[in-house]
Design goal:
7-stranded mixed beta sheet, alpha/beta, about 15% strand, single chain
Length: about 260
């Protein structure tokens, strides 16, 4: 494990269906397979990342809901669960997380609750934060805690339009709450080079000055194996290592390491 500070990365898009949770699961698995120590933090009340990693909760399990609404005496290490794969752990979510915003409405410092995970950073090279597909107190907590943002963007016109609001939100958080928050990059997803739409969106993204030098060379191609691996609750790099999905996420992990200070093989 790296002696350097863990890279805390929010993987976010306020539009659903862009491959956000699939990126959290499969990028995390690809990083751990390459020798990184990875913690996935599931901040989505739909708990798809938790389910996709094959994690089953006990009745008294500490989840991100408990992290958000519990008192300051809680030990965040109690929320960490091991997956079946070496070097890949998860802080699970629970449906109760959907009510956390209402419970914390009048609480001071409510945007800082996720910082309770900070003591865990010494144990990991990467902490990947999954987010709900909406702007909420949960998302603001993720942005307040994270130091990097990675945006999966479906190569579809609707997905590109949603980027404006997301970038505005990131800018406001950086200006008012977390000056250490920076955009690491944008990952094109569901890319199909055979369609004019995918090719056209890629051209528009590359021409956008806001993303100059920020678009990953790796694209996540449309690949049914990614969805199939999710059905089997296995990351695609372990489910079918020769598939397009496994190859793409392996390459994305390598590129992410090259763009930061992570440990390399």
């Amino acid at each position: 494990m790296s002696a350097q500070q863990a890279r805390v990365i929010a993987i976010v898009n306020e539009k659903g269906g862009v491959g956000k949770t699939a990126t959290v699961i499969n990028l995390g698995a690809a990083l751990s397979k390459s020798g990184q120590k990875v913690l996935v933090v599931d901040m989505d009340p739909q708990f798809n990342a938790t389910h996709g990693l094959g994690v089953e909760l006990e009745e008294d399990s500490l989840t991100t809901y408990g992290i958000m609404v519990g008192d300051d005496s809680l030990d965040p290490a109690e929320a960490v669960l091991s997956t079946k794969w070496k070097g890949l752990d998860v802080v699970p979510s629970h449906v109760d997380l959907a009510g956390a915003e209402a419970e914390l409405m009048d609480q001071p410092g409510r945007e800082n609750r996720l910082k309770r995970l900070t003591p865990l950073e010494k144990n990991y090279d990467f902490i990947l934060l999954d987010t709900p597909p909406s702007l909420s107190l949960l998302t603001i907590n993720v942005f307040t805690y994270a130091r990097e943002v990675l945006i999966p963007c479906q190569t579809h016109p609707y997905a590109m339009k949603a980027l404006d609001d997301l970038l505005d939100t990131i800018g406001l958080v950086k200006e008012n709450i977390n000056p250490n928050l920076n955009l690491t990059g944008l990952v094109p997803t569901f890319y199909d080079s055979r369609t004019r739409v995918s090719r056209g969106i890629m051209e528009l993204l590359k021409a956008d000055e806001r993303f100059k030098g920020k678009i990953f060379d790796t694209v996540i191609r449309s690949n049914s194996t990614i969805a199939e691996s999710s059905w089997h609750q296995k990351p695609v790099v372990y489910f079918r290592s020769g598939s397009f999905g496994a190859v793409d996420y392996t390459n994305l992990a390598k590129e992410l390491l090259e763009r930061g200070n992570g440990k390399k093989n």
